[in-house]
Amino acid sequence: MRRVRNFLLLAALIPVAALTEEPLAVAVASNFLSTAQEISAAFTASTGTQVRLSSGSTAKLYAQIVNGAPYDVFLAADAARPGLLLDNGLAVPGSRMTYALGSLVLWSTDSRLRGKDCRAALDAGDYRHLAIANPLTAPYGRAAREFLQASDLWEGAKSRLVFGENISQTFQFVASGNATLGLVASSQLTALSPFVATCSWPVESPGLSPILQDGVILRRATNQHHARSFMKFIRAPRAIEILQRSGYSVPLQSSVDAE
Fold it and tell me: What residue numbers bound the domain in which 18 lies?
C-alpha cells in the first residue's frame, strides 16, 4: 500500500504537459528538409520540445493545410502561400517571416560534362534532358522557368524537360543520370551532399525574382507558445549558422508582419 501511495505521489508531481504534450508539427518544403532537421535537433536540444517534420512540395503542403491537416508551423519555399493562409484566416497574424533566401544552381553528374561549362552546355542544347521542379506546384520550378524564359531558352528546352514533383525529386533525376542537367536549389549542392557535380553554375540573371522562403504559425496550432519559440529560434545565431552552411542566404529583416 505504501508503494502505491508513493507512486501516486510521484505521478502527481509530474507536469501534465510532460505526459500529454505532442511534438511540434512542422510542414516543411522539400528543399529545406535536411536543414530543418538540423535546426529542429538544435531546437530540441535547447528547449526539450520535440519536432515532427512533414515534407513535400509547397503546393501540396498548402493544400493539406487548407483541408485541415494538423500542422502547427508551415515553412514554405515561397512567400505567396503563407500570405494566402493569412488572407484566409488560417495563419496567426503577425507570425509570418522570411526565414531564408534560396537560389538556383545548374548542375550535372554527366561524365561528358566533367570540367566543362554547364551554362554553355545549356545554351548550346548539349543535353538529353533538363530537370526542373514542376513550375505549377514548386517555387523553385517556377524560378527555373522564369530563368529559362528570361534567357530565351524555354521554347528550345520544353520538349526535353523532365519535371520533378518537388525539388528533391528533381535533384534525384540529375544525381541518377536520368537528366543531363538540372536546375536545383543551391542548398542541395553543399559540402554535405554525397553527390559530386561534374559541372555547376550558380544561376545569375538580371531581374530574376529572389526566392523568398516564408514561414507562418497556423491558427490550429495546438501549442502556439512552442510554435512561436520555434520561429524565434530560426532567427537565433545557431540556426542562422546552420542556414548559411546549408547554402541559404539570411534576410537582413526576417520579420514580415508586425508582432
Answer: 2-101+211-245
